[in-house]
Amino acid sequence: MVCRNSDKAEEAREDIIHESGNTEVHVHILDMSETGKVWEFGEAFKMQYPSLNVLINNAGCVVHKRELTTEGLEKNFATNAMGTYILTQTLIPLLEKSRDPRVITVSSGGMLVQKLRVDDLQSEKAHFDGIMVYAQNKRQQVVLTQQWAKANPNIHFSVMHPGWVDTPAVASSMPQFHKMMGDRLRSVEQGADTVVWLALCRASARSRSGQFFQDRCPIPAHLPLAWTRNSAEEIQRFMSRLEALAKEILSKAEEEHRSMSSFRPQYD
After folding, report:
1. How far apart are CA 28 and CA 3, in angstroms?
2. 146 — phi, psi (to 5°)?
3. Which of these, 112, 184, 186, 263, is most buried using a 10 Å CB contact count?
4. Phi-psi region of 102 (alpha: psi -120 to 50; beta: other; left: phi over 0)
């Protein structure tokens, strides 16, 4: 488990051990918005473990005011998109060493109202709305999953919407929505069901890689007659800009850790 808060992580670890009886549950403390450290974690993980079977990208945040990280990235984008991108890219070589590798990214149905904004990744141009920025990041995750699936045919990629789940994050980031939905919100177990199915079941691995799922079924990543589709050129420009940002971040991380000079960015 890669977690930001050590106390909550340890509590979750103990719960898992208690419920499952499996004592091989390990915690790694990491803030996904600190993307240079995300790369450092990925590199250290590759040195520690011979392979990786399943990666679940679940970390996310909604920050309602535009806030920059120490690396100069808008915090929602850094956590939800850039951190996810760098961690996944870094761990792909380890995933490829597994027999049935899978990557599941937890997105949101909110992305259905967002078209990928290729020219404003850091939300600098329009009025800043944290919920809409979050939805844009979730659209970015869907596009990333589609592109990863094309580039890495030996790994099964999927992205999913858990439904609207009654979590502290929803209550704090969308209090009016949380109150309005009330008992109609899903339980945490219901929200996690498709993630677990995608990670473990043979049937899910037989589905086409790169799809968007809800309730164990692939669903369209765009609403009917939607204006949210992008051209192939726009998507390629998005990927190129992510790669350029990643190179810049990893170059700085390399400078700070010259003792790890054997690393060569896989984005070259």
Report:
1. 6
2. -60, -40
3. 112
4. beta
Tokens of 71: 């690396």
Per the structure block, which two tokens stand in for 151?
Answer: 């580039």
Asked if the model's pLDDT at residue 215 lies above 90, the reply is yes
For 102, which DSSP code?
E
pLDDT at position 260:
53
Provide the 8-state DSSP code for 111: G
**Which residues, listed in sequence order, are joined to residue 29 by a DSSP beta bridge?**
3
Distance CA 4, CA 23 (A): 21
Query: What does the alpha-carbon distance between residue 171 and residue 239 come to, in Å, rounded to a whole number?
Result: 33
State the Cα–Cα distance between residues 37 and 267, nearest whole angstrom.
17
Q: Is 134 a catalytic residue?
A: yes
8 A C-beta contact, residue 155 and residue 102: yes
d(CA 166, CA 210): 27
Domains of the chain and CATH, by start: 1-30 (no CATH), 50-246 (3.40.50.720)
Write the single-letter amino acid at 30. Answer: L
**pLDDT tens profile 138-154:** 999 999 999 999 999 99
